[in-house]
Amino acid sequence: MKFGAEFRRFSLDRQKPGKFEDFYKLVVHTHHISNTEVTIGYADVHGDLLPINNDDNFCKAVSSANPLLRVFIQKREEAERCSFGVGSLSRRRRPLALREDGPRRRTHLHIGLPHDFRPVSSIIDVDILPETHRRVRLYRHGCQKPLGFYIRDGTSVRVAPQGLEKVPGIFISRMVPGGLAESTGLLAVDDEVLEVNGIEVAGKTLDQVTDMMIANSHNLIVTVKPANQRNNVVRGSRALGSSGRSSDSTASRHSLPTAHVLQNLPPDEMESDEEADVVLEGVLEPRLVPRPPPGSLARVNGAGLAPGLHSPGREGSVQRLLSSLRSDPRHSLALPPGGVEEHGPAVTL
Amino acid sequence: MRRFLRPGHDPARERLKRDLFQFNKTVEHGFPHQPSALGYSPSLRILAIGTRSGAIKLYGAPGVEFMGLHRENNAVVQIHFLPGQCQLVTLLDDNSLHLWSLKVKSGVSELQEDESFTLRGPPGAAPSATQITVVLPHSSCQLLYLGTESGSVFMVQLPAFRALEDQTISSDAVLQRLPEEVRHRRAFEMVEALQEHPRDPNQILIGYSRGLVVIWDLQGSCVLCHFLSSQQLENVCWQRDGHLIVSCHSDGSYCQWPVSSDTLQLEPLRSCVPYGPFPCKAITKIFWLTTKQGLPFTIFQGGMPRASYGDRHCISVIHNGQQTAFDFTSRVIDFTVLIEANPEAALDDPYALVVLAEEELVVIDLQTAGWPPVQPPYLASLHCSAITCSHHVSNIPLKLWERIIAAGSRQNTHFSTMVGLAPAPAPPQPRARLAHELLRHLLQEWPIDGGTSLAPAPPQRDLLLTGHEDGTVRFWDASGVCLRLLYKLSTVRVFLTDTDPSESLSAQGEDEWPPLRKVGSFDPYSDDPRLGIQKIFLCRYSGYLAVAGTAGQVLVLELNDEAAEHAVEQVEADLLQDQEGYRWKGHERLCARPGPVHFEPGFQPFVLVQCQPPAVVTSLALHSEWRLVAFGTSHGFGLFDHQQRRQVFVKCTLHPNDQLALEGPLSRVKSLKKSLRQSFRRIRRSRVSSRKRRPAGPPGEVQEGSSRAERTGLQNMELAPVQRKIEARSAEDSFTGFVRTLYFADTYLRDSSRHCPSLWAGTNGGTVYAFALRVPPAERRMDEPVRAEQAKEIQLMHRAPVVGILVLDGHSVPLPEPLEVAHDLSKSPDMQGSHQLLVVSEEQFKVFTLPKVSARLKLKLTALEGSRVRRVSAARFGSCRAEDYGEHHLAVLTNLGDIQVVSLPLLKPQVRYSCIRREDVSGIASCVFTKYGQGFYLISPSEFERFSLSTKWLVEPRCLVDSAETKNYSRLHDRSGPEKASGRARNSGSQSDGEGVLKEIQSTLEGDRGSCGDWRSPRVAVGYSLSNGGGCS
């Protein structure tokens, strides 16, 4: 059984929770999984997934229940892949958290592979950026939500050889409630925008940065220096990098040409995420612009190949076609690659 | 994307780029914005104009131009040439003096500032003590006399500006040397006039504002004589022989005083109030000039009856019983009269009146009866009516050129030809004679003709067409340094307007007093804003012209050498078609004049298409071979067959949600608010533009220099934070249906075996429509209808406005213009290889294959730089090394004011230069590119800056001014005609037919004192091949 999940509800004495070992036995017994090794975790008040593996944290978990305690049970080998930690539930929006809602209590959840889900946003390039910075990718395509944020001019303090220096900077000024940017939780008001899709914004005007962001809105990657520096990812290897370090120097050290900056992405991912232009032959047949033959000098204009989507048949305007494409947010991801007639006059659908 | 960030340094390519591209701002055409001072050197025959932003511009013979800019950016108040020298002194409104000189460097004169100086008084003196009111350069060129507000006259030694403090003529010193009865009558107050005795350099005249005039002996430091008038003194003129002084006064009177050394003159010889007896305004400047005939010329500014004509800007000329008050449409800044330059000559013999008004330069011929105006070869008032659009056509065929000149010459009959050209011996070729005749009208003898232009004759004939708010289109010769008006087309005649334009001129009565006469062409008031011209398209081979305007009117015109009277066919194009329930709240469409209309020779309209709703026409294309015209508005686009006078189709591009486009930009409620806002904006713009002329930084450095402005901008931001919404564009945005570009192409639209005519349209919402056209063959052209069928519709997913569409042939060369191949001026396009479609949006450049429309290449400009494409045009860049090597590329102007060259067909950025300030929105919006890598943009409402991206095509002034040479320069009309003519005949006779004519026309148009100088023929005519203007690929 691939999706083996059970939900059980039982009570514990809040004052005397007892020992962890008893609890473990109770759990495996209740679920009739005595023969499998499991790890037990719980969701704390902040939405973080924390482990229960000794008396102390078991005690802590029970005392923090308010009034229910959500306990997660996973096979040990599966659980290994999903690490506990701060931000693991709410901030990362792991599938676990997304699926875990309503009255379900205990879960034995198969964690789906990323491609089963529609990505909304991600933090990327954690390994090459200074800890004070965060590079956020917003996946707008197929999403009905507006990007939903505003930027403004401001001043930022940098450490220069001559001492502290005020320089102009671009900041997030407002989040649209319910917008994509807000819903990711990765961007916040007063975060300083350092780069847009790998291009530094230093020296650019507000209008230029606005135009850059809108031009990249199908696949927007924003590097920010968060106003709140307490939620930064801390890496052991870079523990020396304190958040008090000059953002100027770090920015210059780490702002690399796009090719480097986006190294964590598969080479054609940038392109494939871009939506393709739509060409209507005559006034009837819609098709997406096909990919040119591989190895040619030409570059792919957009590789979101979507054969067999629609056959409007009637005189559908491009707008209608597009809005229908949008309304199925997953179409372009769910489609198997290939199957496109490369050299035909048009992809007839 | 990666490719563009790592350009990959190919040294050979870098070298080639240096041979192809180079950025220069070469010359400013038009009339200086906000002029503030006028100067003239009779010996150099050069005119100088200073502006409120601190620029000085020098003009001599056509093509002789210099420009200088004071670092202080303060208004230039006075300009004085040092007598007989290539030097001039300027006074700025910060009371600083600047010495400029024309220095010869490697054979070419350059204007440069040598020294600057601020007069300082003794410690503790009031600032007015040294506030300069009058400047007098002494004829020795060693001294400068400075009259001040305190009444003192300071002396400064040139060229170092060394103040000679011990020689100051203070008002006290003058007072002590005056008789008792004068001394106690009044204080002197400021110095209003300073003049040197015309014959005796030891005497100067000092006029004080309270009415006292003294003649001061410089050596003896004594008053030779004095005159006392009862009125405030405005100015003084000293007659050439020194025996008579004419003073003008604040009550509108002038007085004549005879100069005799001993006697005290208490009463003037004659006193007169020319426009009395009612109170008059001051006469601010006066000239009293002697002539051969004995009767003097009296020329003065102002003096009009205060109550009824006090608001007029007038200069009156009185001579031999004739009196005319020239009435200018804008304020008179200053004027001068051109007289005999030789100081030894006995008579003044004035021959021209030069008036600098706020908005134009007017020159009046004083030797021809009736004192007609002379058409200046430069300093054209581009903004006679505000410029609304411009269109450039390179390489005009001679035939069309001649016909336009002929049409224009008939319009210019009211202009003086000064002294008519001496009849030239018949040129050997008949066509040359024709050209010569035509030019007689155009080429007047221009009285300001100092210096010699060394610039090579322009390699080709270029036209710049400007559309104006009043419904006119002006045709400018943009081939050379002088932008000269060739012909003016008015579309007003086609429509019924409130006022009949022909009546206003004849309304002036003959016997009225004062004898006012309107002069000048500046008339910023438009009867009806709907007449404004928005798009122009001229076919240089067929002479067909399409013009489209603010109220959705599209006119197709044909060049006719004869006057004609005919009805204009009217057609309505309903662009909304089936869209129901919408109401246009903007302006109404223009009402066409019914019945036959008389048209003068020139471009005569024969078809009027009126778009419904009558929104402004936003794009226009004309295909003269297929006889089709395409037009687009914010609602859709249409195709019209002007041969059969039939509409082929219309297509509505409107998105159903787009309410704004439907109501129209000029909805009635908004219009007042909007016009108010615009007028404020205009005021602000004029203020901004006074600061605009910063010296251009080194080209290529884009981001430098702006940091300070940014920092100050930042401080302002902190007070009121501006924020911008980040949101992807959607199909529902406003004005997505706005048609931005239309393009005709003969290409492979449907399949790769057959090419056919096609029409392409791009919208604001990133949609490209392609229509396949079937145009009947020529023999059945009138019998079968033109058919159109939509073949493709491309929606760019980034949805940015489409600003350019271009089809490249099998060799990746842009398709030639219609009829270009037929006229053997271009190679036939390559129809073997596959064609490619280039779509330029504001954000990206994209190349698609044809006929499949699959994307091949792209360059994302906005995503990388944050800049957006404002203008794009394909241009051919010639190499400065190899004569016939050239490449086709895209010239691009962005919203940041940068100019870039993007290669074809690989879309690689080649070079980038900062050109226009990013805040200068009107400058960016006005930019036009030529087909050979040059361009124009407005730096003020009245001036075009010309720039060049090409190493090969460069039109810039190169001229020489030599003071020694001009010493015994006699006046123009004293030179013998036959000599001129022989020079010209030699010039044209030595060449073969067509080329000779061309060169002759060009050399004469280029001007340079006609063709009188012998220096001209060997240097210029040799070695200039016209074939390089051929536009072949």
UniProtKB/TrEMBL annotation, chain A:
Annotated Gene Ontology cellular component terms: apical plasma membrane; bicellular tight junction; cell cortex; nucleus
The PB1 domain, residue ranges: 1-76
Residue stretches of biased makeup (Basic and acidic residues): 340-349
Record keywords: Cell cycle, Cell division, Cell junction, Cell membrane, Cytoplasm, Membrane, Tight junction
Domain of life, source organism: Eukaryota
Low complexity bias locations: 236-255
Disordered: annotated segments: 236-275, 328-349
GO biological process: cell division; centrosome cycle; establishment or maintenance of cell polarity; regulation of cellular localization
Pfam families named in the record: PB1 (PF00564), PDZ (PF00595)
InterPro entries in UniProt: PAR6_homolog (IPR051741), PB1-like (IPR053793), PB1_dom (IPR000270), PB1_Par6 (IPR034868), PDZ (IPR001478), PDZ_sf (IPR036034)
Entry protein name: Partitioning defective 6 homolog gamma isoform X3
Cellular compartments annotated: Cell junction, Tight junction; Cell membrane; Cytoplasm
UniProt cross-references to PANTHER family, sorted A to Z: PAR-6-RELATED, PARTITIONING DEFECTIVE 6 HOMOLOG GAMMA
Taxonomic classification: Eukaryota, Metazoa, Chordata, Craniata, Vertebrata
Keyword Repeat: no
Subcellular location, principal: other
Span of domain PDZ: 135-228
Family: Belongs to the PAR6 family.
Organism: Tursiops truncatus (Atlantic bottle-nosed dolphin)
From TrEMBL, chain B:
BP terms from Gene Ontology: cell division; cortical actin cytoskeleton organization; establishment of spindle orientation; exocytosis; Golgi to plasma membrane transport; regulation of establishment or maintenance of cell polarity; regulation of Notch signaling pathway
GO cellular component, one term: plasma membrane
Bias (Basic residues): 684-695
Family designation: Belongs to the WD repeat L(2)GL family.
Protein name listed in UniProt: LLGL scribble cell polarity complex component 2
UniProt main location, coarse: cytoplasm
Compositionally biased intervals (Basic and acidic residues): 971-982
Record-level Gene Ontology MF annotations: GTPase activator activity; myosin II binding
Organism: Tursiops truncatus (Atlantic bottle-nosed dolphin)
Lethal giant larvae homologue domain span: 273-372
